[in-house]
Amino acid sequence: MSRIAILIVAAGKGERTGRAGPKQYEPLAGRPMLRRTADVFSDWPLRVVIGPGQDALYRTAMGADAPAPIIGGARRQDSVRLGLEALADDAPDFVLIHDAARPLVSRAVIARTIAALEAGATGAVPMLPVADTLRRKDGDAWITVPRDGLLRAQTPQGFRFADILKAHRDHAGADATDDVAIAELAGLAVDAVLGEEENLKVTTEKDFALAERLLGFLDGRSAGAALHETRSAMGYDAHRFTDGDHVWLCGVQVPHDHGLEGHSDADAGLHALTDAVLGCISAGDIGQHFPPTDERWRGAPSWKFLDHAHRLVKDKGGAILHCDVTLICERPKIGPHREAMRARIAEILSLDIERVSVKATTTEGMGYTGRREGLAAQAVATVRLPARD
Fold it and tell me: Within a domain: residue 222?
């Protein structure tokens, strides 16, 4: 298995958007653009190159557990070189270099880039043909430029790590707009893979609006309506009380005079939410993925189950938009722990906490929950997926 590293370049000032701060830290459909970009690459080791003085913006966007940022230079190629130098001790086989301002890159484009490298390419870049007519000003006249053979380069641009590191070191003083240009100066061959129109670079305020439409967050007949579909599904779980001094609910340890009986940690809230997420992609239920007969999952923390369901959604090119959990019990009291539960679910799913709801209710003394024999949970998840015919 090849060792792959991801380097996201986020050191620019992003002044052309007209916004107060660097564009990579600005919200895009409710989440910082850098975070959206980084989440697409969550399956690989990732480092981010930021500009001097952007540490606080980086931590706010990426969270306290994010990998330490790399401080970049004055130009993009300087930032990439410094990022590659920071990866040198790990010496991965391949590196994918991606712009933070391309948050809509798909896993399909990433997969094609990696596949080209694993097939033997020295470098690989997603490209698209030029569709518009091109003209060049020559004095007072306009000259039509033939577009045959012209392609638009995107990111991620992938390379054999040792080759691109040497190329950046050898041509540190060159003036290059991307890493393919550096590779060409070094005489490295670069293969083209198919890019995607949706993998746009967010540069202006209009680009922000277009990206949000593509994400399907705007009302009306947006581009997102044609590119995405939204699905919702429900999950339910219940567990019996047993001896113990705490219960796990929605990823939070709650003190109680009983425990919950189950093969794993019996977290009914996360179990119900896992089933809801799996239902959105028609992927069965939690028991099919984590059978109670499998000793590997005895006592396992239930966040692993929800994380697995989240990854299945991402593998389909989708994203979880919102989730709602209702805990049904007489005791323990949920109110004192509600915000911690919301925060934990948001952390597991890489969601803004405003997209996570946790509620509680009782059955007014009726049924097994009313008799305090156990508790139950129900959950609803909403997921955005690439549209199918």
Answer: no
Provide the domain limits for residue 159.
Answer: 4-215
In eight-state DSSP terms, residue 374 is E
Position 221 scores a pLDDT of: 35
Report whether 234 contacts 279 (CB < 8 A). Answer: yes
Q: In this structure, are 117 and 193 located in the same domain?
A: yes
Cα–Cα distance measured from residue 241 to residue 247, given in angstroms and rounded to the nearest whole number: 9
Backbone angles phi, psi at 213, to 5 degrees: -65, -40
Q: Is residue 220 part of a domain?
A: no
Residue 146 lies in a domain: yes
**Claim to verify: residue 77 and residue 111 sit in the same structural domain:** yes
Write the single-letter amino acid at 342. Answer: R
Phi/psi of residue 237, each to 5°?
A: -155, 155
Q: Same domain for 115 and 182?
A: yes
Give dist(CA 241, CA 294) in Å, integer: 22
Pairing verdict, β 4-10 and 94-99: parallel
Q: Which CATH number goes with the domain that contains 283? A: 3.30.1330.50
Model confidence pLDDT, tens digit, residues 328-362: 999 999 999 999 999 999 999 989 999 999 999 99
Buried b (16+ CB within 10 A) or exposed e, 363-372: eeeeeebeee
pLDDT digits 0-9 by tens, 85-94? 999 999 999 9
**Residues 158/116, Cβ–Cβ less than 8 Å:** yes
Domain identity same for 277 and 208: no
- The candidate with the shortest Cα–Cα distance to 153, out of 122, 111, 114, 123, is 123
In a domain, 126, yes or no: yes
The Cα 10–Cα 176 span in angstroms is 17
Element (H, E) at 244: none
Domain count, the chain: 2
Cα 67 from Cα 371, distance rounded (Å): 47
